[in-house]
Specification:
The protein has 308 residues and is an alpha/beta fold. The protein folds into two domains: 161 residues, Rossmann fold (3-Layer(aba) Sandwich), CATH 3.40.50; 122 residues, N-(1-d-carboxylethyl)-l-norvaline Dehydrogenase, domain 2 (Orthogonal Bundle). It contains 14 helices and nine strands. The strands form two sheets. The protein has a six-stranded parallel sheet, with helices on both faces. Strands 7-8-9 form a three-stranded mixed sheet. Helix 2 links the parallel strand 2 and strand 3. Helix 1 runs parallel beside helix 7. The C terminus is likely disordered.
Length: 308
């Protein structure tokens, strides 16, 4: 790893801040920007430099790590007024981590290339804790030059980096498959734990038993503790999966590929967001189902129709 490399991180949310901290621990010079001043202060406390704008963070950086929510935000950060691309030096590389449709990634790569920049299609997985620990999984695709330029940052942020091909868009396609499974598994986990409540079971015991049984999933083990504690502070918000499963659904429709299970999960997230929980943790699907069924999960009080 070359400690002289400078990295700009745009988007210091649950994932981006952990990634920035991992980069700083790895010996890279880290600048960052986020619209949340508390996130900027946290970066400063971790040894990074908080910039006053996207362009200021990107100016002079060898690597730009983009950790925003969607393609629209990525477009604004990269190509908008005071955007990063106009401020970056030729030959620098963009590591783009948002979940987006493959065609969006391809469009951004083309436009970045026209500006003399390299572009790595690099969606991530692993959650906030792995981001903080520098143990993410990266689903990367792009030119060998883009991978080489991004290597110092990838080494600091990720435990596993998959090189999935030279064509931008392949990484985004892999991430879409991952998000299909992740969203379905969250919805199924929430349905299962709420169903267990309806049967009069001790849901803490249900969690203990299922996590040692064949019905377990990574999402059940990771998300259901939110339900058990009644703490829906977002690590990943409901609105993320409304977006991501929407992308899956759009791609399936274009390809005339049936996605019946995905469609059911998507509607649960849409209903949960419509019920006012879009910014809460995605395990809030359990609260939606509990409310419909008159059940009282931890943290819900009695508004769901009394204890059952």
């Amino acid at each position: 790893m070359n400690p002289a490399k400078s990295v700009a991180v745009i988007g210091l949310g649950a994932m981006g801040l952990g990634m920035a901290r991992s980069l700083a621990r790895g010996g890279l010079a880290v600048s960052g920007f986020d619209i949340n001043p508390d996130a900027c202060a946290a970066l400063e406390a971790s040894g990074g430099t908080a910039a006053a704008s996207i362009a200021e963070a990107a100016r002079g950086a060898d690597i730009l790590v983009l950790v925003v929510v969607n393609a629209a935000q990525a477009d604004g950060v990269l190509f908008g007024a005071e955007g990063a691309v106009a401020a970056m030096k030729p030959g620098a590389v963009i590591i783009a981590s948002p979940t987006m449709a493959p065609q969006d990634a391809q469009d951004f790569a083309r436009r970045a290339g026209e500006a003399g920049l390299l572009y790595l299609d690099a969606p991530i997985s692993g959650g906030a804790a792995r981001a903080e620990a520098g143990r993410l999984t990266v689903m990367g695709s792009g030119s060998p030059d883009a991978f080489a330029a991004a290597q110092p940052a990838l080494e600091a942020m990720a435990e596993t980096v998959y090189r999935l091909g030279d064509a931008v868009g392949i990484g985004s396609s892999f991430k879409i498959v991952n998000q299909l499974l992740a969203g379905v598994h969250i919805a199924a986990a929430c349905e299962a734990i709420t169903f267990a409540k309806s049967l009069g079971l001790d849901i803490s015991r249900v969690f203990d038993v299922i996590t040692k049984s064949a019905g377990n999933s990574w999402m059940f083990e990771n998300r259901i503790p939110h339900v058990l504690s009644g703490d829906y502070t977002p690590m990943s918000a409901v609105s993320i999966f409304t977006k991501d499963l929407g992308i899956v659904s759009d791609l399936g429709r274009k390809q005339k590929f049936p996605l019946p299970v995905t469609s059911a999960a998507l509607q649960l997230f849409v209903m949960t967001e419509a019920a006012g929980m879009g910014r809460d943790d995605d395990s809030s699907v359990a609260r939606l189902l509990a409310g419909i069924s008159g059940l009282n999960l931890p943290g819900m009080g009695t508004e769901a129709g009394g204890e059952r």
